[in-house]
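Dear colleagues,

As part of the handover before I leave the project, I'm documenting each prediction I ran so the next person doesn't have to rerun anything. This entry is a single chain, and its sequence is reproduced below.
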Amino acid sequence: MSDYHFDRRQVRRNFSRAASSYERHDALQIEVQSSLIERLDFYLETPFRVIDIGAGTGRGTARLKQRWPKAEVVALDHALPMLQAARRNRHWLRPFRRVVGDATALPLSDHSVDVLHSNLCFQWIDDLPRLFGECTRVLKPGGLLVFSTLGPDTLHELRSAWAEADGQSHVSRFLDMHDVGDAMLHAGLRDPVLDVDRYTLTYEQPRELLLELKGLGANHADQARPRGMTGRRHYQRMLEAYERFRQDGRIPASWEVITAHAWGPPPGQARRDGGTGELASFPADQLRGSRMRR
């Protein structure tokens, strides 16, 4: 699906280091979260279990618990320091659980989740078949998956400025909406709906953007990234190249945000097993009366 891959250990390190600073820089995340909350209106049932994948410091998880106070709401993240920081967003009247886990190997039983929610996390996972395969596995039939992720036009100004400076990769790359939608269908998710929104944040200087990315944990994490220190000359060239994007005295940074939702498939619908075969599952009571043929 793509010719680049993330260094998963580096992604975890980046977000672990950003746990204490994350909420000083998450204005975009809060804005996108509001659009995801609106998509939850499509779910008309009362959920028993709600999982927030890539919950970070738990601001979105707290909103889910506020919406469904009687549900079991779980903040799941692969960076333990983020979940430790999420403690401050747990209200004593509406607590949520915190679990360390990987989105591509969810520590959940088959068909055990009513609502899967994820806000700006999936862009850090390059194995979409495995990711959405796990979503399909844990969702109940008719359960709702709602998420946001970043598209390839994100930070194109910064990427272009670095390309002029030294021609090396300094900005993480993300998959487009068609790749995401195809992976959802391939995994067996039902009736996916995807939209793209574009946001522009502005800064006085490019350095402010770089500090914000670091504060969010959104540092470059491609496996093919340069490992050495960036030279001062190349860094200065990047700053100078970025100046050509300046408008009305401000430096822009573009964010392409994909929001989507889909539904858990009915019992027995085949799904890919990650190889060449397909798997189908049925409730045990539908298998009663079956006989083994010899």
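Residues 281 and 287 are 10 Å apart (CA to CA). The domain at 8-150+174-198+257-270 is CATH 3.40.50.150 (Rossmann fold).

All the best with the project,
I.
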